[in-house]
UniProtKB/TrEMBL annotation:
Residues 369-546 form the Tail specific protease domain. InterPro entries: ClpP/crotonase-like_dom_sf (IPR029045), PDZ_CPAF-rel (IPR056186), S41A_metabolite_peptidase (IPR052766), Tail-specific_protease (IPR005151). GO terms for biological process: proteolysis. Keywords: Signal. This is Tail specific protease domain-containing protein. Residues 146-240 form the CPAF-like PDZ domain. Residues 1-19 form the signal peptide. GO terms for molecular function: serine-type peptidase activity.
Length: 653
């Protein structure tokens, strides 16, 4: 269980536990939330949720607090306020300029009657940046999941790419039917324009496309690979309409047909009417105890996880566990080639050698090829690097000489783990070979915060200079770098930034004496990605490729078009609450108020530069392009071992 999930579920349960007993008053017909709250899940429809959402009135006082806090966060903390104005970003990026301050002002001027519309506009503004570090998730309208009975993917068959059915939870046997149209439009264009408007995962349109579609990821509790429903078919936000109509082309027997699919509604919320919905789901619970001192020093700083995605997965798994797992087993058992795997951890063509949070495999068809799966950067930083060194020794003992580093499902985590993983592969006493230059926005309020933090011996927050290192010597600061700010004008706007610095990491977590056949040898390493390797994963990928010369194979996207290796790597993230926590923990008055809602609000607040570049990595498309791009086939999209074999073929042909 990850921190954000724990916090989220914890908060929801706490709110339920301490809510005053609620009695149903009046007739529930006039309160759509009362209807929603009393229906069992199998009776709940899209319309029930929509009616409840739309019945909540706009609250001008709460909206003002929200807008004021967002103004300060976006204006003074968000590190890409001005970079986001950059026009004409080169391919593979496809992301128009955004004036976040003007967007916020427009929302302030608009007259709302529904609360839902207000929060939806704030979400759309955050999404328009195409930077998953900037998010606005209203707890009120992102705690119920909507699931389609089929998920989609886009394999290439006989040189032609088409949308097809990936997972099928219907009893119609639609698996691999071509999806020719969605709601009457060409399916590929429909999906692309949907992700361009509704998801902000990446500045690369091909990565956004991947994000919408089904894929595979490694899961630590079972140590197995499981199909993951893409953003298009499983959502935490209210869909545009109550159903989708797919124009399907199946086999000769079935022919062409139209299939209308309603959304299945999934949630675990407890409420009985509008008042308790507001209290239990939307509104901030009573203040929690102050954050623990030294949280950051324990290695959880610069923590990032996409809350909405996580919430959806949790809900879907809880409510549909049996059906889901049953479908998954059938997906996995229908192998194109090969015999059954000997243990649940093994794949037909790959032996599971060792694993827990990360894992290593050896390919049977190409025994010199090993795989290191790194599905997250949320790890025990003090021990995971040495665990990986031990796993790698097991691979070397089996005569593995070449290593694929599989980053599927990795949306980031701890920045220092990104550095340590580079140190495992390319050990160096020069710490700068495993870190990017970076800098913060520097305003008087954060200078004050950093000052208090450096003086406090027990607390280490996001702005603690002792967790940051000087650029020239890579040693932690003893003085406050936020005091020597420099003004920079970008896209016509001026802002003050710190000097360039590094985020520090503890090199002793890696035993530099341990060497493997691929240590310090870029030609024996390959990075495998679908472009969704985000945040700290992206920082790792940038260092591995752009600094140490490893080549990447990116899978999926649009055939014959370049695809990014990673997304939103150019920054570290803070939430609005974490920012306020730092001030409160140090006894300072925060410069902005917490929101009156359970919302999750994040911004990128430390920008990074790849190599000697002067453009921040987040706005540097050339540094994102993968050396190789591979199309999915139905086989490689469903059998991860076959994908590994194909990647080894591309990398070491
Ligand atoms: C619907 O859900 C309720 C409560 O979970 C259950 O008792 C009932 O059998 C379900 N009905 C159908 C038709 O599945
Ligand atoms: C597996 O990882 C979890 C989470 O980091 C950890 O608590 C557990 O001790 C690990 N198990 C083993 C056998 O290393
Ligand atoms: C590894 O290679 C050595 C030398 O060729 C050989 O003796 C040994 O049996 C091989 N080990 C495995 C596990 O294949
Ligand atoms: C630097 O920029 C900030 C923000 O625009 C401005 O308030 C400040 O006066 C500028 N400082 C200098 C020295 O120009
Ligand atoms: C670095 O890690 C080692 C081993 O875990 C620990 O003993 C040491 O105190 C750490 N150093 C710092 C500066 O945190
Ligand atoms: C240092 O921070 C801790 C944790 O927030 C706090 O309890 C303590 O009062 C602070 N010490 C000083 C001297 O401000
Ligand atoms: C920056 O440029 C210098 C001089 O060309 C070079 O030696 C150094 O390796 C470069 N640094 C990085 C991080 O690429």
């Amino acid at each position: 269980m990850t921190l954000s999930k724990a916090l989220l579920l914890g908060a929801a349960l706490a709110a339920v536990a301490c809510a005053a007993p609620v009695t149903l008053t009046g007739d529930s017909g006039s309160d759509p939330c009362a209807v929603l709250g009393t229906l069992s899940l199998n009776q709940t429809t899209y319309q029930h949720v929509r009616s409840c959402y739309r019945s909540i009135e706009f609250n001008p006082a709460q909206a003002k607090t929200t807008l004021d806090s967002l103004y300060t966060l976006y204006n003074d903390v968000f590190v890409f306020r001005d970079a986001a104005l950059t026009p004409d970003l080169a391919l593979p990026f496809s992301s128009p300029p955004v004036d976040i301050m003007a967007g916020l002002e427009k929302i302030r001027q608009k007259k709302y009657s529904r609360d839902f519309d207000f929060h939806s506009d704030l979400r759309s503004l955050a999404v328009s940046l195409n930077d998953a570090h900037v998010s606005y998730a209203a707890g009120c309208y992102s705690s119920i999941a909507f699931v389609q009975p089929i998920s989609l993917y886009a394999p290439v068959i006989d040189g032609r790419q088409a949308i097809r059915v990936y997972e099928d939870a219907t009893d119609e046997n639609f698996k691999d039917c071509e999806v020719v149209t969605i709601d009457g439009e060409d399916a590929t264009s429909y999906l692309q324009s949907w992700v361009d408007k509704r998801t902000g995962y990446s500045k690369d349109a091909g990565v956004r496309f991947n994000n919408a579609l089904g894929t595979f990821s490694y899961s630590q509790p079972t140590q197995t690979w499981a199909a993951k429903t893409g953003e298009f078919s499983m959502r935490a936000i209210l869909p545009e309409s109550e159903h989708l109509t797919y124009g399907l082309r199946c086999d000769a027997v079935k022919g062409d047909l139209h299939y209308r699919a309603h959304w299945t509604v999934v949630h675990q919320l407890q409420f009985t009417d509008k008042a308790s919905f507001l209290k239990n789901v939307c509104e901030r619970p009573p203040p929690t105890p102050p954050p623990q001192a030294g949280l950051a020093a324990k290695g959880t700083k610069h923590y990032k996880r996409d809350l909405e995605t996580e919430l959806k997965e949790q809900l879907w798994k809880e409510a549909h566990r049996q059906k889901y797992e049953e479908k998954q087993r059938s997906l996995l058992s229908k192998r194109a080639v090969g015999e059954a795997a000997p243990s649940p951890q093994d794949l037909t063509d790959a032996v599971f050698v060792a694993g827990n949070v990360t894992a290593v495999y050896q390919l049977k068809s190409q025994p010199h090829v090993g795989i290191l799966a790194v599905p997250t950067m949320i790890v025990e930083v003090a021990t995971e690097a040495s665990t990986i060194q031990r796993y790698m020794t097991l691979l070397a003992e089996r005569n593995v000489t070449h290593l694929i580093i599989d980053t599927f499902g990795n949306g980031g985590g701890d920045v220092s783990f990104a550095s340590l993983l580079i140190q495992v592969l390319f050990p160096s006493q020069d710490k700068s070979t495993a870190a990017q230059r970076s800098r913060f926005r520097a305003t008087p309020m954060v200078a004050t915060l950093a000052d208090a933090d450096i003086k406090n011996t027990t607390y280490a927050g996001f702005y603690d200079p002792e967790l940051l290192a000087d650029k020239a010597t890579f040693t932690p600061f003893k003085t406050n770098p936020f005091l020597s700010a420099e003004n920079i004008t970008l896209n016509g706007r001026e802002a003050s930034y710190t000097q360039e610095l590094y985020m520090d990491y503890n090199l002793t977590a890696v035993d530099q004496g341990i060497k493997h056949p691929w240590t310090n040898d870029a030609s024996k390493l390959t990075l495998l990605t679908d472009g969704q390797c985000g945040s700290a994963c992206g920082m790792f990928a940038d260092l591995l490729v752009n600094r140490h010369g490893v080549k990447a194979v990116a899978v999926g996207g649009h055939t014959k078009k370049d695809l990014s290796m990673f997304s939103y790597a150019g920054a570290a993230v803070t939430s609005l609450d974490q920012f306020v926590d730092s001030f409160e923990a140090l006894g300072l008055t925060p410069p902005l108020q917490r929101l009156p809602y359970t919302n999750t609000v994040n911004v990128g607040f430390i920008e990074l530069f790849s190599g000697n570049e002067t453009v921040p990595l987040e706005y540097d498309p050339a540094r994102h392009v993968a050396a190789h791009r591979l199309d999915y086939t139905p086989e490689t999209a469903r059998n991860h071992d076959q994908l590994w074999a194909a990647v080894a073929g591309v990398a070491w042909a």
